[in-house]
Amino acid sequence: MTDLFTLEELDVDGAIQETASKVDSHSRGMFLRNAGLGIGALAGAGVLTGALPSLASAATSATAASDVAILNFALTLEYLESSFYAEAVMKGALSGETKTFATVVAGHEAAHVAALKAALGKSAVAEPKFDFKGTTGDQAMFEATSEVLEYTGVHAYLGQVGNIKSKDILAAAGSILPVEAWHASWIADLRRHGAKPYPAPTAFASGLTMAQVLAAVKGTGFIVA
Amino acid sequence: MSELHGGLPLSKIDKDGAVAEAAAKVATDTRSGFLRKAGIGGVAVIGGTAFLGALPALADAAAIPASDIAILNFALTLEYLESAFYAEAVAGGALSDPDTVRFASVVSQHEADHVAFLKSVLGSKAVATPTFDFQGTTADEGMFQATADALENTGVHAYLGQVPNIKTPAVLLGAGRILPIEARHAAWIRDIRFAGGTTVEQTPAPGAFEDGFTMAAILATVKATGFITPA
Q1: In terms of Cα–Cα distance, which of A178, A113, A135 is closest to A16?
Q2: Is residue B106, in this structure, part of any structural domain at all?
Q3: What is the pTM of this model?
Q4: Do the domain assignments include residue B164?
Q5: What residue of B is the nearest CA neighbor of A111?
């Protein structure tokens, strides 16, 4: 946990925290519902129709409900990332390598969303509504937020490694995890040019639990409905 | 295989043919020597399961299957290679770009930590370090950067390729704690190499998905470098 960036550390001028504090206390519950992690949604069908080659064989009714929940948890985070980068690219406020970063990563996150949606089929949760609080229209805020989101992505996937039951789903998560790590390292180097915290801040990474990730996401106030 | 996804493959770093030329001179039993050293040969994997784990998650792993021991020794051999590569580059003092010097110093420590971790987990089952000859790649900044890029990709591919094969949950978690760090190293050196890079192929994140490689593919790639010298 020593390599954990907190939102507080990155939110230099307090704008994110200030905005987040205005969000009502129901956000987490709404996020949980949207992510299909509520109890009712877990009891649903396990019908998968995979698009990723490695997930195609997971398309059986035998897929564990817990794995469906993990995929929907991942899908919700990918929705969040994808929407964040798409909005940043659309607004056109970024320049230099940061603009290249946003364009490249937007494509990756959209591909992750598509793969997870295809894998989940009709079990896929719907996309939440987002409000990125102006962080997509300012270069520095975009960079800081991106680093937090990518860090969260890596550690969210890592935290589920021990929970995933299907080898196909584990392989699919494995194909995404290092890409999120690339993103995290790239934006870190772009922001600080190799200064501490380094693009590779520690020798070992630690996973975050689903509860930790949900709390971090809630703290941003980015999910509004 | 998936060179489009994984960034620079080890086979592509040898722009002037020097590495390939040197590798061609290495005795043809290099691979079996590597296999022996890596404990991947038939006999070496059949051992006890006495662990002296340092990492809490692995310390209480009572019975690790022989196949997982082999995977851990495979990983250890790659970490030996990375660790020796960076240590030699740092000691050699030929790097001058401040970002590259810092990268080498930080990553050298990480790889040494990975070696120490895997050795402590394997205890008496740990293979010994091979001897290496990095063919001059640690003494030239451009070659160092290209080789580091390729080695870190190889590390990611190697760990990812073993994910479906690992039987012990604690071993899977241990590999999971190392894998994203190797990916971070790869993106870091690519950002140093391609700062301001404008093509998708040159970016630190060259694809939306990454592939695992089989142990055989990794071993063939490593052999081709000639970095591991015959015993």
Answers
A1: A135
A2: yes
A3: 0.78
A4: yes
A5: B208
